[in-house]
Amino acid sequence: MIQQMLINFEDQLEKNSESFSDPSLRYLFLLNNSYFVREEFLEPSNYVYILPSGTTLKFMQYQEKYMLASWEPVLYCLQDKMPLWFPKHSSQLSRFKSEFQKTCTPHQKLWKVPNPRLRQKLREAIIDKVITGYKRYLEDHPELEKCSSDLQDMEDMVNVLFEG
To answer: pLDDT tens digits, residue range 6-58?
Structure first.
């Protein structure tokens, strides 16, 4: 009976998430709620065995979909395939920085992730994917002027996300 209740709850969450037109916010909504249920009701008790199969998998899928919807467009700016002779690096960097700012500042900075552990997990995932991708890009293009404050500024911006 509890398992069926959880399945119904998950289904209702997914239906409610459709009211968000922004896919990033939709997956953040699903992440917040599924994490809350998992942390508050299931993990403290010894009823983990009643979890519907795939619940943890769904949570991981929500996180992956959130990362794809929010941060993949930022990284795409660096992965743009152009001919080698085309002077593209500076425009790629400026597009990347602009997209990063746009995603962080007015957009997700105001979104709320109430659980501190989930908030930290998301920040770490963003840093691991986006900041590390940016570092790799700079390493692959040593001819570009590097500014270490950029990396720290970007990390600082990520570390204030989801405070609401």
So the answer is: 778 888 999 999 999 999 999 999 999 988 877 776 665 555 555 555 566 68
* Percent residues over pLDDT 90 in the chain: 50
Contact (CB, 8 A) for 39 and 115: yes
Q: Provide the token pair at 65.
A: 């979909």
Q: Residue 9: inside a domain, yes or no?
A: yes
| Number of structural domains found in the chain | 1
58 three-class SS: helix
In a domain, 163, yes or no: no
Position 133 in a domain: yes
The CA-CA-CA angle for residues 60, 61, 65, to 5°, reads 120
Q: Which helix (H) or strand (E) holds 111?
A: none
pTM for this entry: 0.84
Residue 92: which residues within 8 A CB-CB, separation 6 or more?
A: 77, 78, 80, 137
Terminal C-alpha separation, the chain: 35
Q: What residue numbers bound the domain in which 21 lies?
A: 2-158
